[in-house]
Structure formats: structure tokens, C-alpha cells
From TrEMBL:
Disordered: region residues: 1-30
Annotated source species: Salinibacter ruber
Name of the protein: Uncharacterized protein
Bias kind Basic and acidic residues: ranges: 1-10, 17-30
Length: 108
């Protein structure tokens, strides 16, 4: 499965942020029909002129998939091509399992 974030820009925006925006990309791409049996990986193309992709955006776009795959499998299954901070994806993975309560300590 291939998703090019350049196809989901707002104008010439160089920032991909916010859970709502990530959900919008998920809903307007093939990600909404994710089926692990059908695809070997998810490749996400990030435009070279991107300033930042936030963990909240990734959580909105990939949260359901991360929960379905599990932490380790998600790390192997989702591949980014372009400028991304690996910490943002790791934070999205952590948040995906935290649920709606930000006070839950997932490390406890």
C-alpha cells in the first residue's frame, strides 16, 4: 500500500499536524480499507520540503492500523520515505495503546 502525502496537502503546506488532519488523510486514502492480508507493507511518501510530521498526525492516520498490527509489527510494516523524525512515529505508537486517557502511564 502506498500513500503519497503530497496528494493530501492543504495548499502548499509543509506541516502535517493534528489528529483530525491525519484522520482526514486516512479517510481519503487506501488506509481506510487496510487489510494486512492484502498488503506486505505500508509505504508513506513524505514530500522533501516538509518541515514536520507530528505524532498526532501519525496517530490520526495510522492509530487503528498500529493497534491492529501491534507495536513491533507496526515498526516493521510501516515504512516512511522522506523527512520524518523517528521519535514522532514512536510517540504515535505509544499513544495508540494509551487510549483516550492521557493520564494512563503505559510504562507502569
Amino acid at each position: 500500500m502506498y500513500v503519497d502525502l503530497d496528494d493530501h496537502r492543504s495548499g502548499q503546506s509543509r506541516v502535517f499536524s493534528g489528529r483530525d488532519r491525519g484522520e482526514s488523510v486516512r479517510d481519503s486514502s487506501e488506509l481506510k480499507n487496510f487489510d494486512e492480508e492484502e498488503f506486505e507493507k505500508i509505504e508513506i511518501e513524505i514530500p522533501e520540503d516538509t518541515y514536520i510530521v507530528t505524532s498526532s498526525f501519525l496517530l490520526g492516520m495510522l492509530g487503528d492500523i498500529i493497534r491492529e498490527l501491534g507495536e513491533e509489527r507496526a515498526r516493521d510494516y510501516v515504512v516512511f520515505d522522506g523527512p520524518i523524525n523517528d521519535d514522532a512515529f514512536e510517540e504515535a505508537i505509544t499513544e495508540a495503546f494509551r487510549g483516550d486517557d492521557p493520564l494512563i502511564d503505559v510504562d507502569a
